[in-house]
Fold these 2 entries.
Entry 1:
Amino acid sequence: MAVFVLVEHSGGTPDDVSRQAATLARGYAEAAGEPLEAVLFGPDAGGAAQALAALGAAAAYVVVHERLTAFAPQAWGRAIAELVETHSPAAVFAPGSERATEAMAHAAAFADLPLAANCVEAAPGEAAEVTRLRWGGSLLEQARVHGRTKLLTVAPHAVEEAAAVPAQTVVSEFTPQLGDADLVVQVVEHTQTDAGGGISLADAKVVVSGGRGAGSAEGFAPVEALAAALGGAVGCSRAVTIAGWRPHTDQVGQTGTKIAPEIYIPCGISGATQHMAGCKGAKRILAINTDAEAPIVANADYAVIGDLHEVLPAITAEIEKARAG
Ligand SMILES: Cc1cc2nc3c(=O)[nH]c(=O)nc-3n(C[C@H](O)[C@H](O)[C@H](O)COP(=O)(O)OP(=O)(O)OC[C@H]3O[C@@H](n4cnc5c(N)ncnc54)[C@H](O)[C@@H]3O)c2cc1C
């Protein structure tokens, strides 16, 4: 009874959250004395075999279907449920991305199995013992997951990726039985979300965000200027997207993008729980706020207490001066 891990990838390169999920799945597989095997989707998934060997996967199932050319949550769920039915894995791990979580929810419904989302620890057993993030990361819950196959998603940026002993990955194709209903919802178009000169929010090493304290859409000019000077991406709070100052694709938080930059610079953001849920993965936080008592300041490694419209241009000017000199 192998342990499966769903691997999302871009052109055959597994993404960060999938490598983190593979780390947790590999630990679970080793504790159970079972091999780790991967499941991939996409026409270019075959090219990921080399990367999977580095993740320690002994086998990989590449899901192929003539009608499955883009992400289709129900079709992915159907394919995973069929793999569970035909291969009876001990567990299926998936990254806690929006796409994989949706696909796993469909898989759980099709396979009539429970699903534990946002796990950060997992140990095998008749009932798997898991620790998972609840309430936007403010609570750790210990739970037991029952069922013949345990279905788990792994909280993004909460598990540190660890190197594996490279394996020889045997790649095979798997064709699910898909009906029209499985393909009703599918991606038809991609829009580039280049908040900062082509850098995506989720992958950016530096993120500078603005909140209600920016005051208006135009008030984001100093936020954009600092992000550009640091080669980072621009983010924002939900108060900003609700006001229509920035698109929802820029929103950091529980109902926005989960980020894990080297440094996160929230400006004029109070630090509500739902916002913090999206930036817990940041290595360092530098808060800029007029209110020294704001929760974001308590959660930050560094803080500047002041008006962002004065502080940000001053920082940007210093960076430019240092570069020029
Ligand atoms: C179900 C649910 C999901 C949610 N999901 C999200 C989410 O994904 N992301 C998210 O962000 N929120 C989310 N929220 C909303 C969240 O609860 C807060 O309302 C929101 O984050 C507040 O945004 P803010 O910090 O920009 O605004 P405020 O809370 O109004 O804070 C503004 C801050 O700016 C400071 N300030 C004011 N002027 C200046 C200035 N000139 N210079 C510097 N600082 C200044 C103030 O001191 C204050 O701290 C969610 C809420 C719910 C109920």
Entry 2:
Amino acid sequence: MKEYIPSKIEEKWQEIWDKEKVFETPQRSEKKKFYNLVMFPYPSGTLHVGHVKNYVIGDIVARYKRMKGYNVLHPFGYDAFGLPAENAAIKNKIHPEKWTFKNIEIIKSQIKKIGISYDWAREVITCTESYYKWTQWIFLKLYENGLAYKKKAAVNWCPSCQTVLANEQVVDGKCERCGTEVTMKHLEQWYFKITDYAERLLNDLEKLEGWPENVKTMQKNWIGKSTGAEIEFPVDGLDMKIKIFTTRPDTLWGVTFMAIAPESPLVETLVTEDRKEELSKFLRKVSLEDRFKRTSLEAEKEGFFLGRYAINPVTKEKIPIYVANYILYEYGTGAIMAVPAHDQRDFDFAKKYNLPIRVVIDNPESSIDASKMEKAYEEEGVMVNSGPFDGIRSTKALGKIIEYIEKEGIGKRSVQYKLRDWLISRQRYWGAPIPVVYCEKCGVVPVPEKDLPVKLPKDVEFLPTGQSPLSLDEQFLNTTCPKCGGPAKREADTMDTFVDSSWYYLRYVNPKLEDKPFDKEDVNYWMPVNQYIGGVEHAVLHLLYSRFITKVLHDLGYLDFEEPFENLFTQGMIYKDGWKMSKSKGNVVSPDEMIKKYGADTLRTYILFMAPPEKDAEWSDAGIEGVNRFLKRLWNNVYSILPKIKDVKAENIQLKDKSEKDLRRKLHRIIKKITEDIEGGFKFNTAIAGLMELNNSLSEYLNKSRELNLPLLRELVEKLTLILSPFAPHMAEEIWHDLGNETLIVNEKWPSYDESALQVDEVTIIIQINGKVRGKILAKVDTNEEDIKKLAFENPKISSYLKGKDVVKVIYVKNKLLNIVVK
Ligand SMILES: [Zn+2]
Ligand SMILES: [Zn+2]
């Protein structure tokens, strides 16, 4: 009998798939399209089995959908620019490009060995000129439409990565990439105006029914919409007003001071002459504080009185204006109305600087005494000390107060978002140059489309110094102005890699197009992506940016759709010894080693069998052994009968006895189950359990039966091979071929199940006497009570129990149970 040796069959089938180009997707087809996409990797090292999980899940979906008759687009590429590559290149003293392409080669060979069905003809690598030319084109489109702009602002700075970071890349005050505490710098930087799309990005989340709720919630919170009022406070003695935003206009009568962010230009305007010197001391001190720490609830509140007063527009009282360390310039207007009685941070500040605390919302349960307050009362309640609104419930008063403010000309209803504009400048080398030049005469001039790409020079000193490496390259830097022909300097910053990945799914549709980033008609046929698969860590970075860029391109008339990803699946991680796999922990499992030991089919099947794919799972050597044993047993079962069924057709199947009926029922039940498991939320682990169950039934049948039912076995092996094929495609091809088929199994149809085979025709009825189980009888399905009773009473075992007793009552539960009550 043929032995199961994966190394003998896997590479062979991979070569055949390649040669026959079976995974190359026709641009158009009669079939319905299915765009199946996995998030592409940073080529910053070799893959471990945790990375591989993403690709295996995607491959099952792609292979299944192909068998279901779809025209499936299943591409792969590399997010090849960016810090991971640059940092690793520096560490290994090698050019980032060389290092990146070396890794791409390794990753590609790793993936090919796993047998993932990618259309390699559509491979996209974001650091190639033919790709980043169009990333630069997207920048120009945003610039032309007022959605890319430059401004000087306080930005997040990672001292270790030596570059600025977008807000999305700062996690708990630390650099998302390296974990270093982020500091602040004032720099002139390029931004994308994602805030113009805040409302649509928020509202359209509702349309994304195929997205996990947690991802939508994360985006919603990140966008952070709040409704309230914009109120203007006149400054005493100056002809100006300070604008603030508040979600609590109901506390307006309780405002007893104002606080301004140290970074706000208002500080310089407001400070009185005699306090200037002391102010600069205070500002220097604050600038040394960490801005995430200083604004936290627990941080020590510190402030400085500017010598100036504002007028509370409803009470007309004079209130002092402070500069305070707990106010962030980036949020709201950089100034707040402070209500110590009803905001904890204002309360702490007021206590420290002896400022009045006035209760304007009283606790309906027990009245608050302002002089005895130990913390702010932030809940709702009944309005007091609030002029016309006294006695009204604060939640009810909110709308009326906004109306009042509008009528009095003090302010207006307003909506605010936490979302900030997307900072895209990076002071690093390995990225797409920003296509802009600076001319002494003309100012900022975008590079015309015909001059794209602005090529990234290769011979550059790229060590991180805090200064853009390109600014040290005179040859790159000095150019002529496209407008006036005079001398000009190029922008030396490169773009955030998240710009590269915000549109790559469009490029897969036309990866080789030279005069356009994509063809409108082709993109409208293929997009949106039907199934997107990746990690939940991209919830507010990549997934939000991609939605934004799609909406912009839609509004500019390049796309007919507004949302890029119809369904999103976020997979769980693979742990080893309780930890996330990492080189430093030494707990990395390499797919190459596992393939060498067990074969790709075992690796694929095990990764999916470990746990539901959305859950985290712990790698187990015994687990992969077990899956390998299952595949061997299946192989041995099939090959033990293969010579006998090779020339048999799965036709005119006659079922002689119960064991044959049961076996065929099991086959069709499992086809039904696996189909439903895949369709109904990717339950691959239970689908594989179904394959194991079917294989066990086959073993049982082969062990017991004397005369084999060959047409039945032919049907079973054929269909078992088909439903096995997405999981263990190499083994499936081999069996399919050995069954005498000349086709490739990847081109076969997914089997349907025979509804009539699922029918159970005999059932086991439990017989109880006075509630105790006394026996079982076999009966035709749906036999009536009279006939069941007859069968039971005729049964010798049962009748012996009944001897000499009176039957008082008989209860029959159809197809299940007969309970006889006797005395
Ligand atoms: Zn960093
Ligand atoms: Zn010029």
